[in-house]
């Protein structure tokens, strides 16, 4: 395998470390060493078992933060990988290994982009920072959200943030995520009365009781979305009832559901509408709610314009702004009033066996990040 650039070399070094959530396996120490060398002040911010750090260069002006995570998802069956997942290798121009796309390739591109920018503009305007966690793929309790809480408590300002999540679909830079939908889940338990199926008048079947309510929830039109967000969606993800016996009416039904909601609605409004539907059907029920995050949106402006120009000048395409997909740690950073966008590699193989990216695309990504910095902070 030939190492063809500083970005690919760093990506391979990071990918060689088995940093399955919440392990970091030395990835952050490697990044910190590089950032210290170019004048960044490092602040270690561990919480529980999770390693986090916040690094910053500069003392005044807008703060552009590069955010990401060093943790990766489990590998799955190792024997089904083309290469061992933590022994990355370039085959026919593709870099294989866990974290290639999500998101050690982006981390490498961020670091080398900043190194190149600082070498060219050592007295640049503004501030550059990094917010890195090892708890994005897991429970996300002691990661970015805890760091953001600490930064907000001391009134740290981050005006702009680029999250290196793999946003691209068919070609590097074709999609920039300038927002994400909100998300919350519910665990519904409908209570009936267990009994013998031959004596239904002595039982209450929670499956029969709950089905009309679940049908109404599944067919409710929640909103129309807007220019930036698709309509709110409701999905039932799991249903369980019964003892396994064919002659027993179950005593309870358990259903899990999830909302992905636009900026037209909020958690309280949606929760109230769900409860109204359940009450309408006169169910005896309990619901446990899990709130995952508000929607956020970064409208076209100085940051988005700088990113679009950088993509156009590097790969000769005009990116599409999108709020599709799941959630990311950007939702926590957006709570600071920060303009948050996501730009990273092609996401076709994330979380899959044989995760990979085109090796050359990581060099292009580094160039895009560097040109964003130049567009925002270069001085004459």
If you had to describe this structure to a student in words, what would you say it looks like?
The chain is an alpha+beta fold. The chain has nine helices and 19 strands. It has helices at residues 6-15, 27-37, 104-120, 144-153, 206-219, 267-280, 302-315, 330-333, 359-377, and strands at residues 41-44, 52-57, 63-69, 89-91, 94-96, 127-133, 160-163, 175-177, 179-180, 182-191, 195-196, 233-241, 248-249, 252-261, 285-293, 296-297, 320-322, 339-342, 356-358. 44% of the residues are buried.
Descriptive key words:
alpha+beta, six-stranded mixed sheet, single chain, 24% strand
| Poorly predicted parts | none
- The count of strands amounts to 19
Strand order of the largest sheet: 1-2-6-3-7-18
What Rg, in angstroms, do the CA atoms define? Answer: 24 Å
Q: Total number of helical segments?
A: 9
Percent in strands: 15-25%
| SS-based class | alpha+beta
Rough outline:
elongated
- What string gives the helices and strands in order? HHEEEEEHEHEEEEEHEEEHEEHEHEEH
**What's the overall average pLDDT, rounded?**
95
Taking the alpha carbons of the first and last residues, their distance comes to: 40 Å
Helix fraction bin: 25-40%
Major sheet details: 6 strands, mixed
């Amino acid at each position: 395998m030939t190492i063809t650039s500083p970005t690919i070399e760093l990506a391979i070094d990071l990918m060689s470390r088995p940093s399955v959530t919440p392990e970091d396996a030395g990835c952050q120490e490697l990044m910190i060493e590089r950032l210290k060398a170019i004048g960044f002040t490092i602040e270690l911010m561990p919480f529980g078992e999770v390693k986090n750090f916040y690094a910053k260069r500069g003392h005044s002006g807008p703060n552009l933060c590069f955010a990401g995570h060093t943790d990766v998802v489990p590998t799955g069956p190792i024997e089904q990988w083309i290469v061992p997942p933590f022994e990355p290798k370039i085959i026919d121009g593709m870099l294989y290994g866990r974290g290639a796309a999500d998101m050690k390739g982006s981390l490498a591109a961020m670091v080398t982009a900043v190194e190149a920018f600082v070498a060219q503009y050592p007295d640049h305007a503004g501030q550059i920072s990094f917010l890195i966690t090892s708890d994005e793929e897991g429970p996300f309790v002691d990661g970015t959200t805890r760091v953001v809480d600490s930064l907000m408590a001391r009134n740290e300002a981050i005006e702009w943030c680029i999250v290196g999540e793999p946003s691209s679909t068919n070609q590097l830079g074709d999609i920039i995520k300038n927002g994400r939908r909100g998300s919350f889940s519910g665990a519904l338990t409908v209570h009936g009365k267990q009994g013998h199926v031959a004596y239904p008048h002595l039982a209450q079947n929670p499956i029969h009781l709950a089905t009309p309510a679940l049908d109404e929830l599944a067919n409710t039109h929640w909103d129309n979305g807007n220019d930036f967000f698709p309509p709110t969606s409701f999905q039932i993800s799991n249903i369980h009832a019964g003892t396994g016996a064919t002659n027993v009416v179950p005593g309870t039904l358990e259903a899990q559901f999830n909302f992905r909601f636009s900026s037209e609605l909020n958690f309280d409004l949606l929760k109230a509408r769900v409860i109204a539907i359940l009450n309408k059907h006169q169910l005896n029920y309990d619901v446990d709610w899990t709130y995952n995050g508000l929607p956020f949106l970064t409208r076209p402006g100085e940051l988005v314009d700088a990113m679009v120009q950088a993509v156009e000048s590097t790969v000769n395409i005009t990116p599409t702004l999108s709020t599709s997909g799941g959630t990311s740690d950007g939702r926590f950073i957006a709570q600071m009033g920060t303009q948050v966008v996501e730009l990273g590699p092609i996401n076709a193989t994330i979380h899959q066996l044989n995760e990979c990216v085109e090796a050359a695309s990581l060099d292009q990504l580094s160039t895009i990040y560097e040109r964003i910095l130049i567009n925002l902070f270069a001085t004459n």
